[in-house]
Fold these 3 entries.
Entry 1:
Amino acid sequence: MPQIHDEPVTSLSDHRKPGNHDADTAASTSSSNPTARRLLQIYLADHEAASRAGLNLVHRVRSENEAAAYGDYLVKLEAEVEQDRASLINIMKALQVSANPVKQLVARAAVIVGRLKPNGQLHGYSPLSRVLELEALCAAALAKRGLWQSLRVLAPIYPELEVATLDRLIDRATEQFENLTDQHRQAAREAFDG
C-alpha cells in the first residue's frame, strides 16, 4: 500500500545550484520550444484551477457527511487534497508558472453552479447529492493522477521535477481513486437500494 504523506510533497531537484552545468543545460533545453512551454503553462494553470474547485468540493462533501459513515475517510481525503494542491503550487513555482485568475474564477463558478442541481429534495442534503459528488471526486482523482503521470514523463526534460516525488503523488492519487470508488459504491447502494 502506498505511503500517505502528512505534508505536501515539495522535493524538487534544484537545477540552479552553482556548478550544476548538466542541469543548467537541461533547463535551457526544456524551455527551448516556446510552444511546448506555453502549452505546459496552460495545462498546469488548468489543473491548478481544477484543484481549487476540487478542494472546495471535498470541503463541501466532508462538511455534509461528517456524521455519516463517510466522515472519517473524507477528513483524511480533505487533508490529502490540500497537500496535493500545495505540491502542485510548489511544482508550478519551480517551473515558474503562474495561476490563471480567470480560470480560477471559472472553477469557482462551476462549484457554485454544481450546488444548484436538483437533488430530489427541496431542502437539505440528499443521498443523490452524495452519489454525484463522490462521482465528481472520483473523476478529480483520475485527472490528478493524469497530471502527475504527465509531469513524470516530463521529468527527464525539466530537471525541476523529481521522479520519486511524482511517483509518490501518482501512488496517492491511485489510492484516492480506489478509496473514493468504494465510497461511491456504498453511497449508490444507500441511495438507490432503498
Entry 2:
Amino acid sequence: MKKWIALLSALLLTLCCAAAESPDAGHTATLSLDANPSTGYAWTGLVLSGDAVQLDSAEGAFIPDDQSGTLAGAGGQTQYAVTAVKPGSSILTFDYRRSWEDTALEQRVYLAVVDQALNLTMTDMTETGVFEGTVLSLDEANHTALLEQDTLGEILAQFSPEMGLPALDAQIVIYTDGTMALSLPARMNVLAWRSLPSADAAEEADAASFAEITN
C-alpha cells in the first residue's frame, strides 16, 4: 500500500511540474497610456493581427494619479497587460477617442514579438511604421498594392500571401515593419492593415452623432 501511495505522489508531482512548464504561462508586459476619463476620452485596445499575444481587456484598467480621490477631473494612466501566447508576432492598436466619435484623438501602435521561450518584446511603431494612403492599383499576382501617401508620394505595399488585398481607390492604413526598400516607389512590408471610412460615411456618422446628442 505504501508503495502505491509513493508512486501516486510521484505521479502527481510530475503532473504539477508539467503544468508549471506549460507554454501557456507566457511572459506579460504592461503598457501605460496617459488618460483622463473626465474629458469623455478613453482608450480602446485591439490585437489587430496575429495571435502571438492577448490583451487582458479592450478597455484596460485606469489608475488615477491622485490616489486619494479628492481631485475632480484628475488624469492618470490606462494600463494594459499584454501576455505572450505563442511564438510569432502581433500588431496592437490603441485608440484614444470618445465613444460617440469615429475619429481618434490619438492612436498608439505596437509590434509584439514572442520568441520560442515566450519572451515578449514590445516595440512602439506609432511614428515609424504607420502610413495612410489611397489604393491606386493592385497586383494580385505579386500580392502588392500601389498607394498614394501625402508625405512619401507613391508606396508599393507588399502584403503577405495570407492577407486579403484592399479594394481599389480605398483609403487604408498600413502597419509595416518600419523598413523601406530603396527603390522607386518605396517598398514596404505590411504586417497588418485596415480600411478607413470614406468621407461620405464619416459625414453621415458625424450627423448621426450630432442628432443623438441633440435629441
Entry 3:
Amino acid sequence: MLIGLTKIFCYNKNVDEEKSNTWRDIVCILTLFWIPPVGVILTWLVSRWSNAVKWVATIFILVIPMAILGTMSYNGWKFVQFQRGAAPVLGVQQALDLYGLANNQYPAKLDDLKPKYLLELPAVQDLQYTPSEDKKSYSLKAKVLGKDLELRPALVQLPAATQ
C-alpha cells in the first residue's frame, strides 16, 4: 500500500513538474513565430524538445528563409545591373522624344541629337535607331547584358505643329 501511494505521489509530482515546465515550450513556439532568430536561440537553450526537433525548427525558421532572401537579393542585383546597362539607352530615348516634341518629327539619324539633346552617343552594344518613313515614330534597339531591348516613342502621338 505504501508503494502504491508513493507511485501516485511521485506520478502527481511528475505531472506537476510537467505543467510547471510547459511555459518553456509555449515561449519557444511563440518566439519562433514572432521573433524567429530569438525563438531558435530559446529553442536550443530552454525547450525540452529532442535535438532532432530542434534541428528541424532551426532549418525551417532560419535556413529556408535565408535561402529565399538570398535568391531574391541575387535577382535584385541582376535587375539593378540591367537598369544600369539600360540607362544610357533610356537617355537616348528621352533625347529622341525631346527632339520630336521640339521639331514635330524624329531625327533621321542619332547624330542629329548632338550637341543640343545629347552631348555624345553612349557606347552601347548594337545600338540601332530606325525612324519611320514619315519620321513620326521610331524603333531604338540595343543589347543590354546579352538581352535585346527595343524601345519605341514614349509619346503616342507627336503634337500638331503650332504656327
